[in-house]
C-alpha cells in the first residue's frame, strides 16, 4: 500500500534538490534507509549526504537503517543534514 | 510539569536579540542567580573573513526539541526556576547574537551548569543550520563538531 | 599581560547594573561566545522576608583582588578575550543585580568555565560584605558558605 | 620600635567598634595574632570575631597567627570579617 508524504529539505539538502518541500508517494511500510534511497533516486546529488544525514518523521529523528517506519497520508518527513545551530 | 511549562520561554525570531530582555524575563524574586550564554557571530573561520551568517530552522521541530531540553533541565536541576531560549533566524551580522539562553535558580551552581548543558544539547539536537558567507569564496553550511 | 590588562574591566558602583552593557563591553568580532553570570537579590532567607540588601566593600583591595582573578583566568583559559566584572555597592533592591560577570572567548566552553571560576573565586576572596535587611527582625551580615 | 598604622573596620567589625577607621600605635615587629590582640584590647566586642576574622596588611590577606609582620608608618591594616560579596 502506498501513501503520500510531504518531504522537507533543509540547508545543504535544499541546495542539492533545489526544493524546500515536495509531496512524494512511497510504500507505507518502508525502512528509513529505503525511504532515503527513494529520495536519492529522485535527487542523485543527495547521495553525498548519505553518511551524514538523518531523517525526521513526524518531527522525531530517525537514523538511516532497517527499522520499519509506518507512514500515513500527509506525514511530514524531513531531511536533516548535520546540525549547526547555536 | 504543566506548572513548570509556563516558566519555559522559547523564541525563534528574525529580530535582534537582547541580553537585557532575556535576563529580565528569567529574573524572579526567589532567585539569586541568573546565568546567560550568548552565542555571537565571529568574523573569521580558518583565515577567511566572515561577513555574515544566515540561519535556517525546521521551526516546529526546533521548538519541540527545545522544549525537550527544558524538560530535561528541570529533571536534572529541579531548583531551576525560569528558562528562556532565544535563537535568531535569517541574517545575523557580525558580533550580533545568534542565540541567548537565560536560566535562573536560587543558587548559582544550578543555573551555571544548566546553561552549559542547554547550549551543548541545543547544538547537538535542535534542527537549526548556519551558513557562513565569506568575503570571498563559496558560502559554507557549517557542522557543529563538539 | 599588559596588552591583556586593557581587556579587563572592573567596576564597583552604586549605580544599577545592566546585562546589556556588560555583554556589549565583552563582545568582540573574534569571539563566538559570551557567558554572563548575574547575581540578584533574593526576597527570602530562611523564611524571613528580605526587603533589600546593602553592600560594603574595601574598595581598593576589592579591585586588586578582582584583578588577580582576571589574571588567574587568563592563565587558566588563555583564549579568553574580554572580562568585565561589575559589583554594585550600597543599597540593592530586590530582583536587581548585585554582581554581573561577562567573559568572552572564541569557543563556548572557555567562557562558561571561566565565569563559573570567576563568581566562585569572587565570593571566596574579594573583600565585599552584604547585609540583609528583613521586614522584621535585626539586619544580618551574611557569610558566603561555598 | 613603635609605628603608627591606620586600621580599617568593615561590616560586623565596624558595628562592634563603632568606627570605620582609626590610627593606632603598635610595635613595628609584631605577629598578626598580637596585632589582633591589640585591637581586641581596644574594642572588647571584637573578641566574638576571633575565630572568623583575617587581617589585610597593605591590602594583602594575613591570617591570625605567629608569622611576624613588619609594619611601617602609615601602613593600612584592615579587619576582614567573613566575606559575603557576589
UniProtKB/TrEMBL annotation, chains A, D:
Residues modified to Glycyl adenylate: 86
Gene Ontology biological-process entries: Mo-molybdopterin cofactor biosynthetic process
Gene3D superfamilies: 3.10.20.30
GO cellular component, one term: molybdopterin synthase complex
Post-translational modification: C-terminal thiocarboxylation occurs in 2 steps, it is first acyl-adenylated (-COAMP) via the hesA/moeB/thiF part of MOCS3, then thiocarboxylated (-COSH) via the rhodanese domain of MOCS3.
Sites bearing 1-thioglycine, chain numbering: 86
Compartment(s) of residence: Cytoplasm, Cytosol
SUPFAM superfamilies: MoaD/ThiS (SSF54285)
Transmembrane segments: none
Principal location: cytoplasm
Pathway noted in the entry: Cofactor biosynthesis; molybdopterin biosynthesis
Ion transport in keyword set: no
Extra remark beyond the main annotation: This protein is produced by a bicistronic gene which also produces the large subunit (MOCS2B).
Quaternary structure annotation from Swiss-Prot or TrEMBL: Heterotetramer; composed of 2 small (MOCS2A) and 2 large (MOCS2B) subunits.
Family listed: Belongs to the MoaD family. MOCS2A subfamily.
Role noted for this protein: Acts as a sulfur carrier required for molybdopterin biosynthesis. Component of the molybdopterin synthase complex that catalyzes the conversion of precursor Z into molybdopterin by mediating the incorporation of 2 sulfur atoms into precursor Z to generate a dithiolene group. In the complex, serves as sulfur donor by being thiocarboxylated (-COSH) at its C-terminus by MOCS3. After interaction with MOCS2B, the sulfur is then transferred to precursor Z to form molybdopterin.
Protein name as catalogued: Molybdopterin synthase sulfur carrier subunit
Amino acid at each position: 500500500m502506498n501513501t503520500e508524504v510531504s518531504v522537507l529539505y533543509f540547508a545543504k539538502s535544499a541546495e542539492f534538490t533545489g526544493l524546500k518541500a515536495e509531496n512524494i508517494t512511497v510504500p507505507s511500510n518502508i525502512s528509513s534507509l529505503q525511504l532515503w534511497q527513494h529520495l536519492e533516486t529522485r535527487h542523485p546529488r543527495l547521495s553525498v549526504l548519505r553518511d551524514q544525514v538523518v531523517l525526521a518523521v513526524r518531527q522525531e529523528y530517525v537514523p538511516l537503517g532497517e527499522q520499519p517506519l509506518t507512514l500515513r497520508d500527509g506525514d511530514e518527513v524531513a531531511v536533516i543534514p548535520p546540525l549547526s545551530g547555536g | 510539569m504543566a506548572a513548570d511549562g509556563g516558566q519555559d520561554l522559547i523564541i525563534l525570531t528574525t529580530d535582534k536579540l537582547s541580553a537585557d530582555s532575556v535576563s529580565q524575563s528569567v529574573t524572579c524574586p526567589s532567585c539569586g542567580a541568573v546565568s546567560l550564554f550568548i552565542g555571537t557571530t565571529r568574523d573569521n573561520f580558518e583565515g577567511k573573513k566572515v561577513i555574515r551568517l544566515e540561519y535556517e530552522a525546521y521551526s516546529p521541530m526546533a521548538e519541540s526539541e527545545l522544549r525537550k531540553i527544558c524538560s530535561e533541565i528541570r529533571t536534572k536541576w529541579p531548583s531551576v526556576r525560569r528558562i528562556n531560549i532565544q535563537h535568531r533566524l535569517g541574517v545575523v551580522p557580525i558580533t550580533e547574537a545568534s542565540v541567548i539562553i537565560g536560566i535562573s535558580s536560587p543558587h548559582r551552581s544550578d543555573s551555571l551548569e544548566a546553561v552549559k548543558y542547554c547550549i551543548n544539547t541545543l547544538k547537538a539536537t535542535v534542527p537549526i543550520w548556519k551558513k557562513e558567507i565569506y568575503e570571498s569564496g563559496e558560502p559554507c553550511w557549517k557542522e557543529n563538531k563538539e
